[in-house]
Structures are given as C-alpha cells and as structure tokens.
TrEMBL record:
Gene3D superfamilies: 3.40.50.2300. It holds the Pfam family Response_reg. The modification 4-aspartylphosphate is found at residue 55. This is Response regulator. Residues 125-175 form a coiled coil.
Amino acid sequence: MTQKANILLVDDRDENLIALEAALTSLDQNLVRANSGEEALKHLLGTDFAVILLDVIMPGMDGYETAAHIKQREKTKDVPIIFLTAQEVDRHQVFRGYSSRAVDFLIKPFDPWVLRSKVEVFVELHQLKAQMREQARSLQRVLNQETGEPGRVLAEQLAQRSRQVQTDLAALREHIVDNYQEVDQPLVDAVRRVDRSASRLSTLVDTLHGPE
C-alpha cells in the first residue's frame, strides 16, 4: 500500500489555510498547516514533504526568504515549492521565485481544480521517488553480491557525474537570475525541466551509491 504523502500549507491567514485544505482534501494525503515561515521550517526539520504551498506575502519572514532557507538545507533542497500570491506576478518576481527554485506561482483566488491537479503531480512524483529508492536499494544489493568492487566503482562514477550535472545546473540558474532581463522564458522553462530530471536521476544514483 502506498504511504500517504505530506503536503505543507504555509499562510499567515487561517481562512486561506482552510481554503487550501478544502481544495486538497479529496487527494486523501496528510495536510500540515503552518502560519509563518518560521513554523514551516520547524515542520521541515522532522517531516518529509512531497510539496510546499507557500504564501509570498507574510509578516516577518516572507515566502521568498522562507524558500531560500528551505533550499539551503540538504534535507529539503529538492522539495517542490508552489508560491501563492494575491498580486499579479511581474517578471522580476518570477525570477526571484526562480532563484529560490520554486516550481510555480498561483494567483489568489486560485482555481481549486488547477491547484489540486498541480499538487497531485508532485504527490505522484514523491511516491515514485520513494519506489525508485527502494528499487535502487535492491539493485545495489544485487550489484554488491554479483559484481563486488566493480559495482561499487560504477556507482561512484555515476554519483560523480550526477554531482557535476547538479553543479552545472546551479551555475546556470545563477546566470539566469543575474541576467533575468535578457533571458527569455522558453530557456527558463527548459532549465526547469532539466533540473527536475536531474533531481530524479540524482535520487536514484545517490541511493545506488550509498543508501542509508
């Protein structure tokens, strides 16, 4: 049986959290509330989340700052973030969000069906990654039993290549953010797609290299 995924809902207004819960209840996943960026970071210390819905405008630590902290942590850097905002998103906000590695923006009031569809995709990806990790553990056991040292060497080489791809992508993201006025949207979208693919590959390779 597939384990339920955790979804983090972050907004300083209770009525907005209630609206998010109403839209997502039918997914039958674990919905976790946070009324501030600080509270969200505390939840992330001990719980694994499939996706984070994060309000942009909050008192104290706003959504962008909260996202930056999330992405700085090794444990949470790959958790997808969907920003929620009541304002029209201008080009600068898009690139500021991109620098935080957010995957999308939704304008309030949002369409519940659109929100539910977007979140469902990330829940499915999260559950797929969990299955991939388990398959990778099984494959590593086979490699170690049948190939011994050559299998470990191959896993290390794959891990090194995966880390290099992540490094190159980080440099490309920084270039896009620093030059957002000259960069066109198709390039941004393409880099996001590569980034997501590289993240899935990294999950598999890192597990092969050394599961906990």
